[in-house]
Write the structure tokens for this entry.
Amino acid sequence: MGSNSLYGPVDPAPDAGYTDAPPRMGFFTDTSVCIGCKACEVACKTWNAVPDDGFNLLGQSYDNTGGLSADSWRHVAFIEQPSRGSQAFLGLPTGPSSAPAANVVASQQVVPTGTEPGIPPAVDALAAAATAGTEFVGAGPKFHGAGTGFHGAGPEFLGMPGTDLPGRTDPAPRSDFRWLMMSNVCKHCTHAGCLDVCPTGALFRTEFGTVVVQDDICNGCGYCISGCPYGVIDRREGDGRAWKCTLCYDRLGDGLEPACAKACPTESIQFGELDELRERARARVEKLHAEGVASAQLYGESEDDGVGGDGAFFLLLDEPEVYGLPPDPIVPTRDLPHMWKRAGWAALTMAAAAVVAFAGRRP
Amino acid sequence: MVPRADFQSYYGRPIVRPPVWTHDIAIYLFTGGLAAGSALLAAGGQATGDVVLRRAGRAATMGALGASAFFLIKDLGRPERFHHMLRVAKPTSPMSMGTWLLSFFGGAAGVAAAAEVAPLLPERGVLGLARRVLPPVGAAAGYGAAALAPGLATYTAVLFADTAVPSWNAVYPDLPFMFAGSALASGAGVGLIAAPGKPARRMAVAGAAVELAAGHRVENNYGLLSEPYHHGRPGKLLRLARALTVAGAVGAVVGRRSRVVSALAGVSLLAGSALTRFGVFEAGVESAKDPRYTVVPQRERLNSRAATPGEPGPSPRTGKS
């Protein structure tokens, strides 16, 4: 154990005890070129023989997977956002987007993924509507149904996005919005909450610096599921064990790239040595800023963040929480020494109370 | 009440996953604490020559231990692999540390309980040897179990705190005290039912005081993340737990001349302790189900860091950057 073994910048494979470890490998997922084709989801399932996660229609734009689960190790998120001050449709008959209303209905859909806890429905309709942006959601108790009642009237929500071109059918108004897509995956953290808390040693650090579950060891205690600050790892129903992305550990061992990166047609998913990916990502975000995309930002790239940097990091076009990512995750184990210290004081208090209770009595 | 904050999320769905654990784990929090409290009670009875208290404490410890093992194993996704917990001893995993603690505690408490049946063994042969050896070994084991008991009662707080569950993680400074007090109160409850006396009453008052003081901090000192502890079902459970604990402590003192009132106070303390555990458990689950509790505190942290430019900011708790 080094001084940064629980928190702070560190190279995880040597820190875990590997001598002559190969360079740390990872993913750079550039969402600015993602086209939402879901080839990554399919390739992952095919290569890793991941079971069916149910045929669900969620109405979360084109996202019918819902999120990462024990049976979905790649997940393509879709966000529809009404225009934010865009002048693209100036002077044209545009109307408000139906996105906030549609989101409320979509968020209530139960997603039977065959995993636990899987993808629970939203508890807060207001938060669901705000997926499209908080500025489009008026305060007030108007969020009962879809389509009508707030921010003007949008089209009736039918459970899936419209297939006709905007503005073609009258009187449906043309609406100005942008689409965000992101292929989400396990972050293979430098300080992995799941790995830290695993009591059986089923989760381990590979020589490539990635984090993998050994299915012959896992006894399904579920601690990793609560240990992950990103909500990635999940348990398979019936099977009882925890499953997540392995960064195709078997393929890496044979010098191949992971199945999702191989299948990605736009190089939105880039696989390689983490140092090189970080450089490439910084150049890309600078280019986007120069082109006027001020919202472009890297997520999980900095080794100074709360998990010591992600092995799989992202270029995002909006705030992380819009994509369902925690904005500033911290590995729970950071505070473990202090937690034990507090527990020690509490234990001493308890022992002292017991001694005092019996004080003054003699056998 | 904390005002509703504006925040964004992905279709309002949770960001961190709600715990996959069922109420089995809430029950274990109670039975584990009860085993620890009873072991302390038994050791006290042992030290002061109170045979009834010692026997009741040891019996309650064994019963609570058996229930603990049952519920812990039942809650696994692969119960037949429970022994994989003993493959490694891993300091970064409170569950691994707790498994070892529980194993050693169980061994010691088992030997102490076995010593209670020594007088029933025959006087000759191998069993006769056991009859002579068990009482001193059992006494040592009883003290050994008592030494491990405070750890057993408080590690569960670290186990809950060392997660991404927002309302468990945030309250880590006070949760061990809440659990320690709750364990003391439940142990005292056993004493008040089986052999009411001054030690059990003192333990009841001390345990209730520690539990209520720490519980008050958990419910009020952590801003938005304290909210799940006083809202909805967890809030109701914790209010009821508080009422039962107060009633139990008061009953223990006021009813010292009445066996019936003492026993009722004991039952009240036990029920209060159990409800405290259920309340804390459910509050954490609620905080994980609503992305608000994940996003808002993290967003506030980011914004305050952006407002004070410079270093990425040393950790406020560790001082490390």
